[in-house]
Design a protein that fits this description.
alpha/beta; Rossmann fold; 3 domains; about 55% helix; binds 2'-deoxyguanosine-5'-diphosphate; binds fe (iii) ion
């Protein structure tokens, strides 16, 4: 059996990818091409969330029985190396001849990958460009050095890339881009614009991009519209209250107002997400959950919220995501953004659970750590006084202890 792996970010998969995969399939008489989207270490790289890239692949490849998708790299936490992927694939297909489809740019990078010797020993590389003279020379060099088997596909590699598509969408907006795409697809093949049309995405993938707001940042208004579908009215009112309170505190403490408002806006975005979905979204983003978080939605919604903010609202900023993630329990040594969200959630103008709130609201403007400690203390007291015994998350206790010590050390110094 001859199988060919085709790795990439596929952000998004475009017609050029499909074109070269089809060509390789017939030219090298392959049994199948397996598309292997790269993983993303949660929130780190500037690529779209894995789930979207995977969904776009599924949509684009559904009519091609010889094309498969493997999520092995997506399922692997942290950095992924092609070497490990090949090892796994060899276990699944021990007798297969394994090809690896690449563009010319990749040919120049393989030597820098982990264990290139292993790769050249175990793979037959197919380079999807026959024209590039430099790549022919590079192939010869690699053959001499590693005894590499590098073959050139007899097809044109369309030089438009996913990154060009992303920037074009960003620049034109969805409607203009759709228009451009339609125009390009009407060009004849020999027309110089044809290669461009090949580079675009298929229509159903474009619909997915639009529906999931990929490649264009959502405006605040769009976020609120989306959020209003996920939240009840009372929760939306609370959210706007947190935004108001947090913006004031951001000014007082000189914190990044944009980040603070986004974190405030989205802090409870997963409040009504069903438990099973919440656990799933955390797991696929490698967010670890303890046993209590797995059974209490009051605790789970903050971590699930960070993941939802990342996947659905396009937030990639770690500081914003952390503020959402820790808004319920807090954590020791919180950043200023985390503290602002943590206390704004408790003291926003619509809250009235305690007569101490007006005092907290005043103190918040001068001593945020003191208010943090008090809110944590109140939460612990509240949970302990409830009729139905409440388990307490270790983070809540650790955070309380941290701020209690901080305040008492500070008072001693005075
Ligand atoms: O989502 P909100 O209602 O705006 O507020 P939140 O996210 O701060 O808190 C949600 C609930 O979580 C609140 O009723 C208190 C509860 N909570 C906070 N810390 C712990 C906790 N519940 C348990 N069981 N254990 C905790 O450590
Ligand atoms: Fe909350
Ligand atoms: Fe809240």
């Amino acid at each position: 059996m001859k199988i060919c792996l085709f790795g990439g970010t596929f952000d998004p998969i475009h017609k050029g990818h499909i074109h070269i995969a089809k060509n390789a399939l017939s030219e090298f008489k392959l049994d199948k091409v397996i598309f292997v989207p790269t993983g993303n270490s949660y929130m780190k790289k500037d690529v779209s969330p894995a789930i979207h890239r995977l969904n776009m692949l599924k949509i684009a490849l559904k009519d091609f029985p010889e094309f498969e998708i493997s999520d092995i790299e997506i399922k692997r936490e942290g950095y992924t190396y092609t070497r490990d992927t090949i090892k796994e694939i060899k276990e699944i297909y021990p007798d297969a001849e394994i090809y690896f489809l690449i563009g010319t740019d990749t040919l120049f990078m393989i030597e820098k990958w982990v264990e290139p010797e292993y790769l050249f020993n175990n793979l037959i590389f197919i380079v999807a460009d026959r024209k590039d003279k430099n790549s022919k020379e590079k192939a010869k060099e690699l053959k001499d050095k590693f005894n590499a088997d590098i073959r050139f596909s007899n097809c044109d590699f369309y030089d438009i890339s996913s990154s060009d598509i992303r920037s074009k969408i960003r620049e034109l907006g969805y409607s203009e881009f759709a228009f451009e795409m339609k125009k390009a697809s009407e060009c004849k093949e020999d027309n110089e614009n044809a290669s461009f049309s090949y580079g675009y995405v298929i229509e159903s993938v474009f619909d997915y991009i639009k529906d999931n707001h990929l490649y264009i940042d959502l405006s605040d208004a769009e976020m609120i519209t989306l959020l209003s579908k996920d939240l009840k009215e009372s929760r939306l009112i609370h959210t706007l209250g947190v935004m108001d309170e947090a913006s004031v505190l951001a000014k007082v403490y000189n914190a990044d107002i944009k980040k603070v408002s986004l974190a405030a806006l989205l802090h409870d975005c997963a409040k009504y997400m069903p438990m099973d979905e919440s656990i799933e979204i955390c797991e696929r983003n490698f967010v670890k959950l303890n046993d209590l978080e797995r059974k209490k939605s009051s605790l789970l919604h903050s971590k699930a919220g960070a993941c939802l903010a990342y996947e659905k609202y396009g937030i990639k900023d770690k500081e914003i995501l952390d503020a959402i993630s820790y808004h319920t329990t807090g954590r020791p040594d919180m950043s200023i953004i985390e503290k602002i969200i943590f206390i704004s959630d408790a003291i926003e103008p619509n809250r009235d659970y305690s007569e101490k709130l007006p005092m907290y609201r005043m103190i918040a403007n001068v001593d945020i750590d003191l208010v943090c400690m008090n809110i944590l203390k109140d939460t612990l007291d509240h949970l302990n006084s409830m009729e139905e015994k409440q388990e307490i998350d270790i983070k809540t206790i650790e955070t309380y202890e941290y701020y209690k010590t901080l305040i008492s050390d500070r008072d001693k110094k005075k």
